[in-house]
Design a protein that fits this description.
The chain has 266 residues and is of the alpha/beta class. It has one domain: Phosphoenolpyruvate-binding domains (TIM Barrel). An eight-stranded parallel β-barrel has the order 1-2-3-4-5-6-7-8, surrounded by six helices. Helix 2 crosses helix 4, helix 6 packs parallel to helix 8 and helix 8 packs parallel to helix 9. The longest helix is centred in the middle third of the chain and has 17 residues. The N and C termini lie far apart (46 Å). Bound molecules: 5,10-methenyl-6,7,8-trihydrofolic acid (MHF), 3-methyl-2-oxobutanoic acid and magnesium ion. The site of 3-methyl-2-oxobutanoic acid has 12 residues, from strand 6. Its EC number is 2.1.2.11.
Length: 266
């Protein structure tokens, strides 16, 4: 996979992305054959225990991008730029984006935002950093939105989304994530730009889909967004497994003869 192949898949074959945050899961999703792995800033809520994505730092993201790279040496990896790593100044943004490639081992970065980020994105691409855009519900702006709401419900916001998508394409992004955009608007955007759209909660007509790993695997029993699908219930499976371990230590069933080292034996 590379950015040109990504672009060439538009309209031909659905593009499959999923998030991963560590080496063992990166190995699993890579072996399952996803087209790319997103090291999301949703690291903050899914792995670090925060309630939103805002606390993720550059150092967090680099450390976990490195872990994903070690678990999936040949995967196409996209690093998600965390809150305030690219909003303060263009120079700082380019340096931080570059860290994902130089230190993290990522192949590209993603950042949230519309046409006002087009000049920055153009500079990044001209500097040799492939950029994925992210429009619609941009979780780093949850405090401005006042919640996680569907985007593009009226004519004005739908038009703004379309204009933003065209501005990002013009700036040189290789793909655009559309998050929680009403299906009709996501379809229109998909038909109006020449780069692939990757949907999450944005319906059936995007060029690809991205899902949060912990949602797909059912690792969070408390919450599942309406747009997500649980393909397994790892919370229950894990709970059952560890409960059995607890029980077996207490009953001295574990460790058993096969787990022990003895004098003169093996
Ligand atoms: N585990 C996880 N899954 C995600 O999809 C995800 C993250 N984390 N973190 C980053 C963002 C935040 N996202 C979110 C967060 C909350 C809702 C939510 O509260 N949805 C409600 C209400 C939707 C509505 O207003 O209609 C839902 O029931 O889906 C949705 C997406 C999507 N992203
Ligand atoms: C939901 C995806 C697109 C994301 O940005 C993340 O996981 O951080
Ligand atoms: Mg994100």
């Amino acid at each position: 996979m590379n950015v040109q192949k990504f672009i060439s898949m538009k309209g031909k074959q659905p593009i499959v992305l999923i998030t991963a945050y560590d080496a063992p899961f990166a190995r699993i999703v890579n072996e399952a054959g996803v087209d790319a792995i997103l090291v999301g800033d949703s690291l903050a809520n899914n792995v670090l225990g925060f309630s939103d994505t805002l606390p993720a730092t550059m150092d967090d993201m680099i450390r976990h991008t490195q872990a994903v790279r070690r678990g999936a040496p040949d995967a196409f990896i996209i690093g998600d730029m965390p809150f305030l790593s690219y909003q303060c100044s263009q120079d700082e943004a380019i340096r931080n984006a570059g860290r994902f490639l130089k230190e993290g081992g990522a192949n590209a970065v993603k950042l949230e935002g519309g046409s006002s980020f087009a000049p920055l994105i153009r500079r990044m691409v001209e500097s040799g950093i492939p950029v994925m855009g992210h429009l619609g519900l941009t979780p780093q702006s949850v405090n401005v939105f006042g919640g996680y709401r569907v985007q593009g419900k009226d004519e004005n916001t739908a038009r703004k989304l379309l204009e933003d998508a065209k501005a990002l394409e013009e700036a040189g992004v290789f793909a655009i994530v559309l998050e929680m955009v009403v299906e009709e608007v996501a379809k229109q955007i998909t038909e109006s730009v020449n780069v692939p759209t990757i949907g999450i909660g944005s319906g059936r007509y995007c060029d690809g889909q991205v899902l949060v790993l912990h949602d797909a695997l059912g690792l969070n029993p408390a919450f599942l967004p309406k747009f997500a699908k649980r393909y397994a219930n790892l919370y229950e499976i894990s709970l059952k497994a560890i409960s059995q371990y607890v029980e077996e230590v207490r009953t001295r069933e574990f460790p058993s003869e096969e787990n022990v080292f003895r004098l003169g034996g093996n």
